[in-house]
Amino acid sequence: MIYDIAIIGGGIVGLATALKIQKARPGLKIALLEKEDQLAKHQTGNNSGVIHSGLYYKPGSLKATNCIGGYHELIKFCAEEKIPFEITGKVVVATRERQKPLLDKLYERGIQNGLEGTKYISVDELKEYEPHCVGVAALHVPQTGIVDYYKVALAYGRKIIQNGGEIFLNHKVLEIKQQNGVNYIETSKRTIESSLVINCAGLYSDKIAQMSEREPIDVKIIPFRGEYFKLKKDREFLVKNLIYPVPDPNFPFLGVHFTRMMKGGVEAGPNAVLAFRREGYKKSQINLKELAESLAWPGFQKVAAKYWQTGFGEMYRSFSKAAFTKALQELIPEIQQTDLVEGGAGVRAQACDRNGGLLDDFFIRESTHAIHVLNAPSPAATSSLAIGGTVAELALKRFD
């Protein structure tokens, strides 16, 4: 049997893409391949659970348009499928005077991206939203919320099966060849044949792309581990909803924050350190081959040379609970080391080009026989249905 489309990757983006294709063209035969024994095990399953509003992203970028569109689609989907979610709002807090111009830029982006209700709040008003938080200036963003993205992804998967799609677990892709317009995808279980490959493999998306393409793709996935602490139960009162710092424009994904979780509890973090393997959720998990590939990539070497101090600071916080606590105290001075217990960790698939650019926007590349989603970090979960729609549109043009 030759499938019309084979989607590689059972995370939230791959699942949303399958769902969108099914909705637009129910007659197409779709196979979704996942190397693990369950869906959404990696980036999706280790997500912080924030429903992002679209505040941070450059107006007109794929991140901005897909986040804002995906936000509304996600909320509608959760309401229809009875998946618990909550629109909590969040505060973004400048803790130093020099951060105020960056806060102003954030506000301008929010307005340009169509966020209604985003407003400056005074220091006194900040205390009304988050009584234990301190700062010199702040924004309140009412659209932000929380959800369990693992439950969302599983709901996508159920609907794919209900709609006649096929999901193959434990099918690790080993090789991809093309012959006479057909992709032959060799997996650990069998060979799948398809007219089109859609690569949503996340942490291994560059590897899958290189299997499929003859020319170098000139993008490498660099894995960054984000480590969290949790507040002890009797200290969760320190955080009402979500508290974020003003982001570093060079590394917008850095900056520890506080997040009330849909499944209960409050997370504090993350930091961001180079993971020593692509799925390295602990410091002890090392894959020498994958680590060597990251360190040898010219783009990563340029990033490391330019921002070594930032990287050292993140690594120091990874090994020092006292340093991690100090970073959290910028926002909530009452936080003490004894308030924190070890939480989980996630690994971010960050695409880096050969020239040392950490790709900020979503990045999708097409070839004659494949579509590759090569950069889909946060807010990909919030944006999933919109990204899925974008990829589906590219795919369906080939079947007109």
CATH homologous superfamily grouping of the largest domain? FAD/NAD(P)-binding domain
Question: Main β-sheet: number of strands, strand sense, barrel status?
Answer: 9 strands, mixed
Please compute the radius of gyration using only Cα atoms.
Answer: 21 Å
Helical residues, percent: 25-40%
- Could you say what the CATH architecture of the largest domain is? 3-Layer(bba) Sandwich
- CATH topology type of the largest domain: FAD/NAD(P)-binding domain
Broad CATH class of the largest domain: Alpha Beta
> Total number of helical segments?
11
Structural class: alpha+beta
β-strand amount: 25-35%
Poorly predicted runs of 5 or more residues: none
Q: Distance between termini?
A: 21 Å
- Mean of all residue-level pLDDT scores: 95
Number of DSSP-assigned strands: 20
The coarse overall form would be globular
In the residues, how many domains can be counted? 3
List keywords for this structure.
single chain, 400 residues, alpha+beta, FAD/NAD(P)-binding domain, D-Amino Acid Oxidase, Chain A, domain 2, 3 domains, nine-stranded mixed beta sheet, eight-stranded mixed beta sheet, 11 helices, globular
Describe this structure in words.
This protein has helices at 12-24, 62-81, 100-112, 123-129, 149-162, 205-212, 288-296, 298-306, 308-319, 321-329, 380-396, and strands at 2-8, 30-33, 50-51, 85-87, 90-94, 119-121, 137-141, 145-147, 166-168, 173-179, 182-187, 191-199, 219-231, 242-245, 257-260, 266-269, 273-274, 340-353, 363-366, 370-375. It is an alpha+beta fold and 400 residues long. The protein folds into 3 domains: 2-45 and 150-218 and 362-399, FAD/NAD(P)-binding domain; 90-142, no CATH class; 219-353, 2-Layer Sandwich (D-Amino Acid Oxidase, Chain A, domain 2), CATH 3.30.9. The strands form 3 sheets. Strands 5, 6, 7, 13, 14, 15, 16, 17 and 18 form a 9-stranded mixed beta sheet that branches. Strands 1, 2, 9, 10, 11, 12, 19 and 20 form an 8-stranded mixed beta sheet that branches. The chain has a 3-stranded antiparallel beta sheet with strand order 3-8-4. A hairpin with a 2-residue loop joins strand 10 (173-179) and strand 11 (182-187). The mean pLDDT is 95.
